[in-house]
Amino acid sequence: MRLRDKVAIITGGASGIGKATALLFAKEGAKVVVADQNEAGGKETVDHIRSDGGEAIFVRADVASAEDVQSMVKAAIETYGKLVILFNNAGIAMRLPVADLPEEDWDRCIDINLKGVYLCSKYAIPEMIKNDGGCIINMASIYGVVGGKTRAAYVASKGGVVNLTRGMALDYASNNIRVNCICPGFVETPLVRDVVKTPEEYQALAVQHPMGRLAKPLEIAYGALYLASDESSFVTGIALPIDGGYTAG
Ligand SMILES: NC(=O)c1ccc[n+]([C@@H]2O[C@H](COP(=O)([O-])OP(=O)(O)OC[C@H]3O[C@@H](n4cnc5c(N)ncnc54)[C@H](O)[C@@H]3O)[C@@H](O)[C@H]2O)c1
Question: Is the pLDDT of residue 193 over 90?
Fold first, then answer.
C-alpha cells in the first residue's frame, strides 16, 4: 500500500475528483479526513470507504472560513494524531466574462478556489512541521496555465493556485514539506454538468483535448496519489498536467 498509515485531509471530498481520491487514498492505506460543505455527500464518501474496510471521518467545513478550516485540522489531529497529506481540492466553477460578473461572484470564486488553498495550508503546515514534514497537493486546472473564454474569475483563481504552489514549495522545502499542484483538463464530474448536458456539448469539449475525450475522476486521483506517495519524494513546486494533451499544443 502506497499511503500506509498516512493521514490525509481531502477538501471537496463529497463529490467528483475529491471523492475518487478519497476512495483511492483509503484503499492505499491512508486514514482520510473527508472535508466538504456538502454533509450528505461527504458522509456517503466516508460510508463507502468504511464499507471497503478503510478508515475515514467526515468534517463539515467551508474552506473559505478560517474558523471551519481550523476545526478541520483539529479534527484530523484529535482523531488520527497527525497530519501528513493535504489535498486542497474543493473548488467551484464561475462562467461569466468580467463585465457581466457580479463582484460577489468574483469574491466567492477567489475565496473558495484560491483563499481556501491559503487557509487550509496555513493551518495544516504547522502540524506537518511537528511531524517532520508532509505534502500538499493543490487543485489547479489547465486554466491555471492557459486562458479560457467566459471564465475570467476561474482562470484567475487557478493561475493564482499554480503560483501559490510554487511560492509555498520554496518556503517549506527545508521543512520537508512538498507542495505541488495538478492541472486537469475537463473531467466528468458535477462541476461541468452545466456545460456537458448534450452529446454535442460533450463532443465540443472533447475535441479540445487531443485524446478526444474528457477525463474520468480516477485519472486525476492517480496523479494525486503519485504526488502524495513517497514515489514523488524529490518532486516539489510542479504543476502536473493531466489533460489528454490539451496544453501540449
Ligand atoms: N471537473 C473539471 O473539469 C475540472 C477541471 C480542472 C480542475 N477542476 C477542479 O477540481 C476540483 C474538484 O472539482 P470537481 O470537478 O470534482 O467538482 P465537484 O463539484 O464534483 O466537487 C467539488 C466539491 O467541492 C465542494 N466545495 C465547493 N465549495 C466548497 C467550500 N467552500 N468548502 C468546502 N467544500 C466545497 C463541493 O461541495 C463538492 O463536493 C475543483 O477545484 C475544480 O476547480 C475540475
Answer: no
Ligand 1 centroid distance, CA of 189 (Å): 8
> Model-level pTM greater than 0.70?
yes
Ligand 1 contacts CB of residue 36 (under 6 A):
yes
- Residue with the smallest CA separation from ligand 1 atom 44 is 187
Neighbours of 232 (CB within 10 A): 18
Mean pLDDT score, 26-41? 98
Q: Which helix (H) or strand (E) holds 68?
A: helix 66-80
To the nearest 10°, report the CA torsion of 173, 176, 178, 179.
-60
Report the relative pairing of strands 55-60 and 177-184 from DSSP bridges. unpaired
Nearest to 15 by CA among 133, 191, 224, 140: 191
154 is catalytic: yes
Which of the residues 154, 222, 226, 246 is marked catalytic? 154
The per-residue b/e assignment along 47-81, b for 16 or more CB within 10 angstroms, e otherwise, is ebbeeeebbbbbbbbbbbbeebbebbbebbbeebe
Residue 58 falls in which region: left (phi positive, over 0), alpha (psi -120 to 50) or beta:
beta
The torsion defined by the Cα of 77, 80, 83 and 86, in degrees rounded to 10, comes to -100
Q: How confident is the model over 52-68, as a mean pLDDT?
A: 98
187 lines ligand 1 (CB under 6 A): yes
The full set of domain ranges for the chain reads 7-187+216-241
C-alpha cell recorded at residue 73: 485540522
Task: Name the superfamily (CATH) of residues 7-187+216-241.
Answer: NAD(P)-binding Rossmann-like Domain (3.40.50.720)
Ligand 1 pocket test, pick from 9, 10, 11, 17 with the greatest ligand atom count within 8 Å of Cβ, gives 17
